[in-house]
Amino acid sequence: MPQSRQLHLGAFMRPVSLHTGAWRYPGAWPDANFNFAHLKYFVQRLESACFDAFFMADHLAVLNMPINALKRSQTPTSFEPFTLLSALSVVTERIGLVATASTTFDEPYHIARRFASLDHLSGGRAGWNLVTTSNPDAALNFGRDDHMEHDERYRRAREFYDVVRGLWDSWDDDAFVRDTQSGLFFDPDKLHVLDHKGPYLSVRGPLNIARPIQGRPVVVQAGSSEAGKQIAAETADAVFTAQSTLAAGKRFYADVKGRLDRLGRPRDHLKILPGAFIVVGDSREQAQEKRAFLDTFVHDDSGIASLSIALGHDVSGFDLDGPLPEIPETNASQSARQRVLELARDKGLTIRQLAQRVGGYSGLEMVGTPADIADQMEQWLVEEGSDGFNVMFPYLPAGLDDVVDKVVPELQRRGLFRRAYTGTTLRDHLGLPRPDNPFFSKAVRA
Amino acid sequence: MPQSRQLHLGAFMRPVSLHTGAWRYPGAWPDANFNFAHLKYFVQRLESACFDAFFMADHLAVLNMPINALKRSQTPTSFEPFTLLSALSVVTERIGLVATASTTFDEPYHIARRFASLDHLSGGRAGWNLVTTSNPDAALNFGRDDHMEHDERYRRAREFYDVVRGLWDSWDDDAFVRDTQSGLFFDPDKLHVLDHKGPYLSVRGPLNIARPIQGRPVVVQAGSSEAGKQIAAETADAVFTAQSTLAAGKRFYADVKGRLDRLGRPRDHLKILPGAFIVVGDSREQAQEKRAFLDTFVHDDSGIASLSIALGHDVSGFDLDGPLPEIPETNASQSARQRVLELARDKGLTIRQLAQRVGGYSGLEMVGTPADIADQMEQWLVEEGSDGFNVMFPYLPAGLDDVVDKVVPELQRRGLFRRAYTGTTLRDHLGLPRPDNPFFSKAVRA
Ligand SMILES: Cc1cc2nc3c(=O)[nH]c(=O)nc-3n(C[C@H](O)[C@H](O)[C@H](O)COP(=O)(O)O)c2cc1C
Ligand SMILES: Cc1cc2nc3c(=O)[nH]c(=O)nc-3n(C[C@H](O)[C@H](O)[C@H](O)COP(=O)(O)O)c2cc1C
């Protein structure tokens, strides 16, 4: 049976890569956090490969790690997403621009407005990665002693989304008539005052910006808890998820698409895009060597701290070149601990290697020739493990160039990925309809 | 005595002009609120004339006016300042980029970070117009029933500024060593944790962005109350003020510079820039005709509402083509009322003309030939009424082109304004030193 579905590809970006050893990799650009020219290069290359979106992660605190580990890493500081993506909108024409923004530490009026503004600037290419913020230290930067409790975060997030969506619909699409003759700038019948009053938020509106080009910017969700999956099914256009194996991916896919069925939403109105860390070689062996070489750049200080955190047990006293001994159960996250223990066992890693893996990157990865990688992506697509991927690059620019120059052409040859953009907005790329404004639907107006 | 001081010129921008009739003026661009190409044209022309800064006003609510008046005006909606200025930073190289942001309705961590990011993107051209927000309706969009009381707003603003400044100093200028050999990305001794706990704000830090290029982005203040002037003297690098006459300007200038003396700050570390609405003609008569013609585009609905608000008295029942009768005293702002009554008397305006003036623009204006305007600007500079101006354009693009093509060359001929940028940052243009990081001054380190 011919495969008619196509892959969607986002690029999950941190300027220097999210792998904490990447800045030391030969040929890397360690100053990319504050080098606009480098980021321009990345986004333009990705656009030349017809990627759906350029996706900026975001955190509201310098990561919570012992300073001895932190000082080894390029992650704590970089451009703020809105300023960066707005600047990148000027040097691109088609690729979607997705910014992460928090419902826990921001105001819906600001968020609605900024995404609408980015959408206008970019001609309909804005997306919002809606997060409740994973780093609990952020609370300390916003006047709180503790992170808001998990379920409460999600209840606020749900209401926050409703407010943002209502604010985006403040003006009808054709509200601004600008009739110089009569002196009518906008039609007041096409202005809607939200007047929202809820348990967490009270926002009158209207928003001081015209309705976004896309009607509503694309909403992406990355939660994986019950509450996270449910809010995604109810509100999101795309889900970004960490799924380490195809089996886990298929369970997640069936779970979330099943929620859509129960909500009466069409299945293809929510795209599921697991993160995939891609390392390309001319041979499988070369790719694996690159992958192993990259991990050697994770400094012991950083790797040991990460591994100790993941296990809930200080491993710094062990022989780093020996295998991991039995570790007693602790209070640490069970799933993180389990994943690390499996990794140690399956790959036969020493403690140092394990620490470097955990301190660098240890989720889903595809390491091999362009054909190997295309095979895996195709399998995930065909077997309904995903609708595409959010690609993570091991080091930049070379790791990104490899995907653009070698993997994407292979996917295109197989008919799995577009050779040219067919639309202009991020909704177009993702195959999502432009939503009507419910406050001014034709039925209401008639 | 030769005049050695030079003018500083900012452009106080709303995309279609802040005059509410401007969008109807022949040749205007009524869609500029959401047309990036137009804004790019404006900023590039201003840069070609060596303006110090491009300055975006901002409001957090659709203006509080009766809808019947509001619908006549282009002001309620436009791009959000950070997204817009970030985009404009890509198409310019020297001109300063000043965004308005509120201390009442935002968080210092966000504000510090966004200005730092804009400063990095633009190579040191960011400025913050620090406002406590003039439109009370904004409160309703941010979970409050009422605007915070005036003095409390300023107390919060003062603390807010201290936090932002402290966050900007989170990292020393040379904290990021990126030593690939040893694996040290930053020097932990050059990281400062603010740990601020005050009456209004509690913010731990550090900021997740490197120290701004300018050390600290330029801070602009526009308050005119006692509290406003004092916070300006204590914190600001420039003051944007509404002063209708040279006499008032000189009083304001002496007042604020006197505060600097008492604080031990050098007088030239704070530039005072009144707003000036500039209308250029080939002859004085032609300029005055343009000015009058512009006012005819203020719709009666809009003018009458504005005049009634300014007087605290509904004037819609009067004969619009007659003079203003006696108006009983009311609760409205005394200074606004007084200014309107003087305007009616001094210029002998009918009610309609007065309404059009008040509904359009009624502050300091310079209307005449390029030489007339240069004369006035020179007088303000020489007599210490100001250090320059924040120029407002009556209509765009023509009103802006007139200033760039005719007034600036005249100022340059007189040696009152630069012919080329001599520095690269906004601090350079304003003649302000780059501040040290007090947490890492050489004395502390030694
Ligand atoms: C691939 C991926 C990317 C994420 N990116 C961010 C991010 O940029 N910022 C953030 O605060 N949280 C981020 N998160 C965290 C999620 O928003 C969420 O907090 C986390 O997945 C835990 O899910 P849960 O809260 O539903 O249990 C990301 C999560 C995943 C899986
Ligand atoms: C020329 C000028 C421009 C201003 N621009 C803004 C603005 O963009 N946004 C805003 O909220 N307030 C703006 N303001 C208002 C001031 O921030 C301040 O609220 C007002 O001048 C009243 O001063 P006071 O609060 O010290 O009495 C501006 C004021 C002036 C004089």
UniProtKB/TrEMBL annotation, chains A, B:
CDD domains: Nitrilotriacetate_monoxgenase. FMN binds at D58, T100, H150, Y154, S224, S225. Pfam families: Bac_luciferase (PF00296). It comes from the Bacteria. Transmembrane segments: none annotated. The keyword Flavoprotein applies. Residues 28-385 form the Luciferase-like domain. One of its GO terms (molecular function) is oxidoreductase activity, acting on paired donors, with incorporation or reduction of molecular oxygen. Keywords: Flavoprotein, FMN, Monooxygenase, Oxidoreductase. InterPro entries: Diverse_substr_monoxygenases, Luciferase-like_dom, Luciferase-like_sf, NTA_MOA. The keyword Oxidoreductase applies. Belongs to the NtaA/SnaA/DszA monooxygenase family. This is LLM class flavin-dependent oxidoreductase. The lineage of its organism: Bacteria, Pseudomonadati, Pseudomonadota, Betaproteobacteria, Burkholderiales.
